[in-house]
Amino acid sequence: MVQYLHPHLDASFAALSDATRRGVLEQLYRGDASISDLADRFHMTLTGMKKHVGVLEHAGFVTTQKIGRVRTCKLGLRRLEQEAAWIERYRQVWEARFDALDNIVEELKAKERNDEQNR
Amino acid sequence: MVQYLHPHLDASFAALSDATRRGVLEQLYRGDASISDLADRFHMTLTGMKKHVGVLEHAGFVTTQKIGRVRTCKLGLRRLEQEAAWIERYRQVWEARFDALDNIVEELKAKERNDEQNR
């Protein structure tokens, strides 16, 4: 059975696949911000920024709260544990694969040196 | 100046935002596979699987080689260093934020205990 179902990974990786959305998160690292602050900072319309914030909110990266006419954004409650684990697993497999390739190359080189000495 | 431009992060996070594509990568951890093997395993048409493999190839996760009529897929040359670093940075900020919140809660609790003792 193929182990590939982490349904919320779809939403979180999709949310991270846009430079503006990653920028918004980096901005929220420094502190909460209103949607109009974010729109100004990223040279966007309010409507455009609302869409980006909506995607981040859906993925759990951001929570928003409306007080009066101002909607304030802050970092959400997702710790990105599964996302980090997924990428770490890929990196481990990758390292193991390419270490194995390195070993093959080293063995071939050693064999060649041996053959030269025995000639 | 906002530091949010890692253009290839767009392509790699977008490639990872689909459960089938993550499944294909997990399959390639175990060994190379042809596109028709992958189509069978994921109950997809060849055309559907070719599209997914194309997205993975564009992001550098997969390389393909056609020999005769068979196109074989293998893990690509991307180590996902920047992706791992991005997620790690988010997690560090997140932990620091919520540790700070924990401290505030602890301080409030301590103050309440003090007030009770002084009553």
What keyword list fits this structure?
homodimer; 119 residues; mainly alpha; 3-stranded antiparallel β-sheet; 3 strands; 12% strand
Polypeptide structure, described:
By secondary structure, the first copy, chain A, is mostly helical. Chain A is 66% helix and 12% strand. Chain A has five helices and three strands. In chain A, helix 3 packs across helix 4 (46-58). The longest helix of chain A has 37 residues, at 81-117. Chain A is elongated and about 85 Å long. Chain A binds chain B through residues 2-7, 9-11, 13-14, 16-20, 22-23, 25-27, 29, 41-42, 75, 79-81, 83-84, 86-88, 90-91, 93-95, 97, and chain B through 2-7, 9-11, 13-14, 16-20, 22-23, 25-27, 29, 41-42, 75, 79-81, 83-84, 86-88, 90-91, 93-95, 97.
Can you list the strand order of the major beta sheet of chain A? 1-3-2
Low-confidence spans of chain A: pLDDT under 50, at least 5 residues? none
For the largest interface, the chains and their residue counts are: A-B, 39 and 39 residues
Order of SSEs of chain A: HHEHHEEH
- What is the tally of helical segments of chain A? 5
**Helical proportion of chain A, percent range:** 55-70%
For the terminal residues of chain A, how far apart are their CA atoms? 53 Å
Shape of chain A: elongated
Assembly state of the chains shown: homodimer
Q: Tell me what portion of residues of chain A adopts beta-strand conformation.
A: 5-15%
